[in-house]
Specification:
This protein has 14 helices and 13 strands. The longest helix is centred in the first third of the chain and has 21 residues. It has two domains: 165 residues, Rossmann fold (3-Layer(aba) Sandwich), CATH 3.40.50.720; 182 residues, Dihydrodipicolinate Reductase, domain 2 (2-Layer Sandwich). Bound molecules: NADP nicotinamide-adenine-dinucleotide phosphate (NAP). The site of NADP nicotinamide-adenine-dinucleotide phosphate has 25 residues, from helix 1 and helix 14.
């Protein structure tokens, strides 16, 4: 039996779903794949729980009752003392800083699986240093959920790139929250601010919806895909259409934004009135490999087009390559949500486990 030891950092929406999915899949993985996925350490930003051998964690209670304040050093010492092999660190945090730990983790023998996009969207220098470190220590780094959550976008592009299939353009609705907002806004006669609030209640937007409206999250995804295809770009080089009016942007409080979000209504109503009957507004990311331009913007689409016919909070990625010609390969489906993201992380873990001795 191949034993894999996973240390999970982050027990929020994605991390908590992952623990449950992993525990449920464990028996089947043992039987079908001959792989045992163990979860000896679970940690959030302040507290860690070290699990005893063969203990089935009722992890929420255990983390609260038996967790203790920790430093990364404690985790590294613990796994070394226990003599754990086949170590994988899962980054299910949303932390800017946690990625600094990747270097120590790799040196301590960990492979990395990340839902967190930060490591792939920092400077090119960081991006390359991380890859150098991974190579030096013969370690893997999987991050399929960075773009499109559980949808197989990163791997598809990487496979094209590796097989020398020239990708010319990637275009799509990258954001589940903005997909929901514009799909609903163009289908119904309701104010933009009302639909924005509804998207928040349904859990589609970030607690501060300006994070979604700023286009930065979509830009991060574009950058990750561009770099996957060998494009050397920095985040600052991406052209981003910010949908938040300047008087409500990050300089002002979230409270001020929530109070005045009706100010968005006339701006979007104007755009809606300019549409022809068979047109809708969509929020797209576009990566043009021929010009090297990365663009995040609102566009007008025919209702019947692949992007124009999107529904709910679905994402859709169109990948144009030399062989596919005018007709892109389209990958479409739920591109956000804790359950599909956790499933994507679990899939990365299983794929990585296959590569280990
Ligand atoms: N939800 C999605 O649809 C989706 C899709 C693709 C990718 N992702 C990515 O998945 C990641 C997790 O998302 P989420 O929605 O689960 O976030 P979340 O609910 O905010 O949870 C974040 C977790 O990370 C922990 N954390 C923060 N800093 C940490 C540190 N330095 N060390 C250890 N743990 C730390 C937090 O601990 P505390 O509770 O102690 O603060 C919390 O448990 C994010 O990077 C997100 O961008 C999410």
């Amino acid at each position: 039996m191949k034993k894999i030891n996973i240390v999970l950092f982050g027990t929020g929406n994605v991390g908590s779903k992952l623990i449950n999915q992993l525990l449920q899949a464990r028996e089947q993985l043992r039987k079908r794949e001959g792989v045992e996925l163990n979860l000896p350490v679970i940690a959030n930003s302040t507290t860690a729980f070290f699990q005893k051998e063969n203990q089935q964690p009722s992890w929420e209670a255990d983390l609260v009752n038996f967790g203790f304040p920790y430093k990364l050093r404690d985790v590294l010492e613990y796994v070394q003392q226990q003599g754990y092999e086949n170590l994988i660190a899962v980054d299910a945090t949303a932390s800017e800083d946690f990625v600094n730990n990747y270097f120590s983790l790799i040196e301590a023998g960990f492979h990395i699986v990340a839902a967190n996009k930060v490591a792939n969207t920092r400077s090119s220098q960081f991006y390359l240093e991380l890859r150098k470190k991974l190579q030096e220590h013969n370690k893997f780094f999987f991050y399929e959920t960075n773009v499109g959550a559980g949808l197989p976008i990163v791997e598809t592009l990487r496979n094209f790139h590796r097989s020398n299939e020239r990708v010319t353009k990637v275009r799509g609705v990258f954001s589940g929250s903005l997909s929901y907002i514009f799909n609903t806004y163009c289908a119904e006669e309701r104010a933009f601010s009302e639909i924005l609030s509804e998207a928040g209640i349904k859990g589609f937007t970030e607690p501060d919806p300006r994070v979604d409206l700023s286009g930065k999250d979509v830009a991060r995804k574009l950058l990750i895909l561009g770099r996957e295809l060998g494009l050397e770009k920095e985040f600052e080089e991406i052209t981003i259409q910010d949908l938040v009016p300047s008087h409500l942007n990050g300089q002002s409080s979230l409270k001020n934004f929530q109070k005045n979000k009706k100010d968005l209504d006339p701006l979007f109503l104007k755009l809606k009135k300019e549409l022809k009957q068979d047109e809708v507004i969509r929020h797209v990311g576009e990566l043009d490999l021929q010009t090297g331009i990365l663009d995040v913007k609102l566009v007008t689409e025919k209702r019947t087009s692949a992007l124009g016919s999107l529904q709910n909070a679905d994402s859709s990625f169109e990948i144009f390559t030399e062989s596919y010609g005018e007709q892109p390969l389209v990958i479409k489906g739920a591109g956000a949500g804790a359950a599909v993201t956790a499933r994507g992380v679990l899939t990365d873990l299983i794929k990585l486990a296959e590569k280990l001795p």
